[in-house]
Predict the 3D structure of the following.
Amino acid sequence: MSSLGEDLASHGFAVAGIDHRHEAAPVEFPDGLVERCGACATERWEDGAVNRADDVTLLLDALEDGGAWRWSALVATDRTGMVGHSWGGAATAQTLVTEERVDAGLNLDGPYYPAQLEEEIDKPLALLANGQGQSWEGWEERWAGLTGWRQWIRVTDSGHSTALDRGVLMERLGLRDTLTPEQWRAQFGDLPVEHGVNLVRTYAAAYFDHHLRGGEQPLLDDPGSVHPELVVVDPEAG
């Protein structure tokens, strides 16, 4: 996700990344302490999404207090977007429900858990889904409960982790063969990895520019006309 954050920053957004202690692997602190993902072994995914949403609230509070870091007092929290991958995508939907300061969310191939489906979401929420034909938990149920702007995109030939820069790094470091062809395809699909990352960057920049700044973005009106790999899914069309 580092490259996505850097790209959004290049478009003038203030970007903060959160490492969720005990819920991401690994998290390294400045003093060298490394924490593993203890929660991953418990598979309490829904609880983790709630905890991560609480982390977002903590961050926004710190930004508003001006004590998070030197320039945090200059960061406005009244126009905030959130993007997350996989478990982080579930946390993004949860945050839209519980945190009024987050105005728009982008889910990168993550599920929606049962408790999240009990609440309608009247804020913009988009899903960039994998192109492997795999539907994660709660996608159709969540779609029915979105009363604001919504979009569901299938990224053709993508994998679960296409949005991450991990595939690019693995190729450049000569580590692609550490995964079997089947594992590689599940994670990164059949798209060239740099092209896949760029597709996600382009969509994310357009999405947040439109929903946080009011910018005109033809990409959101007809994604496939700009990038044919971005296929709009309409679950209600059957």
Notes: The CA atoms of residues 140 and 235 lie 7 Å apart. The mean pLDDT is 89.
